[in-house]
Amino acid sequence: MPSALAEAWAEKENSRTPTPPGGGLGPFYKRLAPTSNMLREAGDPGMPLVVAGQVFDTRGSVIRGATVEVWQTNHVGIYDLDGYRYRARLTTNGEGKYDFSSVMPGHYPARVCQHVHFVVTAPEHKPLITQMYFATDPVFEGDPGKNYARDPLIATPEVIRPVTLVGDPKDIHAAVRFEPVLEVL
Questions:
Q1: Residue 2 lies in a domain
Q2: Quick one: how many helices (H) and strands (E) in the chain?
Q3: Residues 40, 84: contact at Cβ < 8 Å?
Q4: For the sheet containing 97-103, what is the strand order?
Q5: Of 95, 99, 111, 138, whose CB has the highest number of CB atoms within 10 Å?
Q6: Residue 100: beta bridge partners?
């Protein structure tokens, strides 16, 4: 049986920093988004995008059954205000995992950087409202760690994620990992 000291050490070793909040819900949030993880349709223009990750708490434990709401613009920077295109309400699985398929969002006039909005909630955890950004965004000029403040809503480069191109030459898509960390209440 592990000692209290060993348990405390293991918890410290596994601990994670909470994901920084940012941006608020904004004017384009819509309740009751569909539960499908396929946000794009066959033939949608733009670079296909797959975002995947796990949701954790600050102790490093995965959060099963967390709700992950996402929304974004289409490839030219337009939000669907009449329907639910590029929006989803997902639930993490038994390993705390989620994923969705979309397109790389475009820039829209009121914002500097490409981004995806996230609201992540789970019982006994503080809700998280944040945005994820793409390290490949031309605004960063190849150095998001130095140039992140070009968008006034980005308080830290921690929410800027690397983008990897994957797939065979006839089916390439952008892949991004985003692993929100919630604070325990």
A1: no
A2: 2, 11
A3: no
A4: 97-103, 48-54, 173-177, 164-166
A5: 111
A6: 51
